[in-house]
């Protein structure tokens, strides 16, 4: 009897381990921030953890009004999530609307951070010690037993036109590949970008199971220039990479976001991606 109980306990551990490895979820925290659970790997992106309020962060120049040192309102509080056991902090770029002082204060400074190489010193000055800076086309890998996580930095173009493009600096998008034995799951997170013709070549990375676009067409309501994707850009991108699923982020949370996510839902409904698009509520978790 004792032998049978021991065998059942061992079997339960094996089943739990197998279930953990097959788990793939995405929780949207708000803005550009989400948590990916890919098997045993836990990834946190562009952490914006400021509370709901009229001055969540200060932006150097408001993209719509042009006001200098403009306070930005957080309309929806960040969702609660488990901040423990994060394997990777993935940063597209360190603008004030993509990593805030609350996140810098709260996060473990020994966390493994992957971000643009050009911002290595910025991350170091914030206190982070385990930094892997990637230029476009660079990659890095993490391994846990049979599981492998590969991060490939890809080009992101924050604005279509100069001088805004240069002023906003260089940022990354990422191809995120999770492999468990023969299983391969591939994500393309755009980061802050507009459509640019080189995206036609992103099919070289293989089938995209999930597209995570940064939306909201920031700046399209002013004279400085648009500095983010609108639904037209995203549809163009979707037609190129043909993703299995689309889960947008970077919408609804902050007052500087211009294009309502309802516009994307409405326009995509009449395309072949209507059933592929899923818009999460703040804090909602999707099974991938």
TrEMBL record:
**Gene3D superfamilies (UniProt xref):** Ribonuclease Z/Hydroxyacylglutathione hydrolase-like (3.60.15.10)
Domain Metallo-beta-lactamase, which positions?
43-251
Organism domain of life: Bacteria
Which first-to-last residue range defines the signal peptide?
A: 1-20
Q: InterPro entries per the record?
A: Metallo-B-lactamas, RibonucZ/Hydroxyglut_hydro, UPF0173_UPF0282_UlaG_hydrolase
> What positions belong to coiled-coil segments?
none
Q: Which UniProt keywords apply?
A: Hydrolase, Signal
Any Pfam family from its record, for instance, is Lactamase_B_2
One term of GO molecular function = hydrolase activity
Q: What is this protein's name?
A: Metallo-beta-lactamase domain-containing protein
């Amino acid at each position: 009897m004792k032998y049978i109980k021991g065998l059942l306990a061992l079997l339960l551990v094996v089943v739990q381990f197998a279930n953990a490895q097959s788990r793939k979820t995405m929780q949207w925290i708000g803005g550009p921030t989400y948590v990916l659970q890919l098997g045993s790997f836990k990834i946190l992106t562009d952490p914006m953890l400021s509370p709901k309020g009229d001055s969540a962060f200060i932006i150097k120049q408001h993209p719509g009004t042009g006001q200098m040192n403009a306070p930005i309102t957080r309309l929806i509080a960040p969702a609660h999530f488990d901040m423990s056991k994060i394997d990777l902090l993935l940063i597209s770029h360190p603008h004030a609307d993509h990593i805030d002082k609350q996140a810098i204060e709260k996060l473990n400074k020994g966390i493994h951070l992957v971000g643009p190489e050009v911002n290595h010193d910025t991350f170091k000055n914030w206190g982070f010690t385990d930094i892997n800076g990637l230029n476009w086309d660079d990659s890095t890998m993490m391994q846990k037993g049979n599981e492998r996580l590969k991060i490939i930095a890809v080009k992101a173009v924050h604005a279509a036109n100069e001088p805004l493009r240069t002023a906003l600096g260089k940022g990354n998008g990422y191809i995120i590949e999770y492999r468990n034995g023969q299983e391969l799951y591939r994500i393309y997170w755009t980061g802050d970008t507009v459509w640019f013709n080189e995206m036609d070549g992103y099919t070289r990375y293989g089938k995209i199971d999930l597209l995570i676009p940064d939306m909201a067409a920031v700046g399209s309501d002013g004279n400085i220039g648009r500095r983010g994707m609108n639904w037209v850009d995203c549809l163009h991108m979707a037609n190129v990479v043909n993703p299995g699923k689309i889960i947008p982020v970077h919408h609804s949370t902050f007052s500087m976001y211009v294009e309502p996510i309802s516009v994307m839902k409405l326009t995509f409904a009449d395309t072949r991606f209507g059933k592929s698009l899923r818009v999460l509520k703040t804090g909602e978790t999707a099974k991938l």
